[in-house]
Here is the input.
Amino acid sequence: MGFFSFMTQEIAIDLGTANTIIICDDKIVVDEPSIVAIDRRTEKMVAIGEKARQMQGKTHDNLRTIRPLRDGVIADFNAAEQMIRGMIKMINKKPRLFPPSLRMVICIPSGSTEVELRAVRDSSEHAGGRDVYMIYEPMAAAIGIGIDVEAPEGNMVVDIGGGTTEIAVISLGGIVTNKSIRIAGDDLTADIQEYMRHQHNIKIGERTAEDIKIHVGSALSELEDPPADFRVQGPNQMTALPIEIPVSYQEIAHCLEKSISKIEIAILSALEQTPPELYADIVNHGIYLAGGGALLRGLDKRLMNKLNIPFHIAEDPLRAVARGTGIALKNVKNFSFLMR
Here is the structure.
């Protein structure tokens, strides 16, 4: 048996719409954008992760860049399988006589259907997974933040990822109420593209919109420590001549208003369904924010003013889910909420 345990490799995968993180031996070994570049003629993968992201929006007819996940679920089965396989190869760079058999824990959105779960499981097994366990994202985020998920008290986690916003109340190692909405980072990026087109007559790609969100994205139009304006270059839609426009954080706060309101409504709706005893715990502990969306300036303050409940941002919100998945991997036998 010793030989077989030597041949088994344990990895935890946070398979996100925007980024995929892999943890092996308690270390983050892969942290790459969830994107692959595929040759149209051979259907073979040409680049993966950051290299493929640099090609995004710049490819010729024979190349296409694909984001295999949309709204937190697998949209392109073949590309997802190639991406998981390619990222696992990044860990095992040395050639081996026998590839190791993999034990994986993968996190999935809490609103996933049976079909979506099946797609994740099949992709993982095709990529070499022998034992595949799954964990719901808000549960992984809670473990990553450091919450004792098996305690008899209520904790609420809001995980704003790339494709979905997961809101869950966790108690006694289970999810009591959950709400999964498909409004998240990608929708905010699309809002910015739309706004720039309507307001400034300038056409920008997904990558530029993402840069605007990172540099001047805000949930409040009044910030104590405002970022400097971000300069955007692109073609004028009417004349096709190049123009440069400074974008301020107030403008972005205004254009993201609608999507952020939907997230607020979803949090309220999840709170409405929460049993009163757990509701009291949540008011005392506050609500935890995780995922890349938690980095949006002023979001915690805005939600706090709206709901009168304190909001805490996880210390490394982008990696909270991945860390929790890594801890779940070490405790596969003890955590009853892991799904086979």
Residues 69 and 327 are 24 Å apart (CA to CA). Residues 249-272 form the longest helix (24 residues).
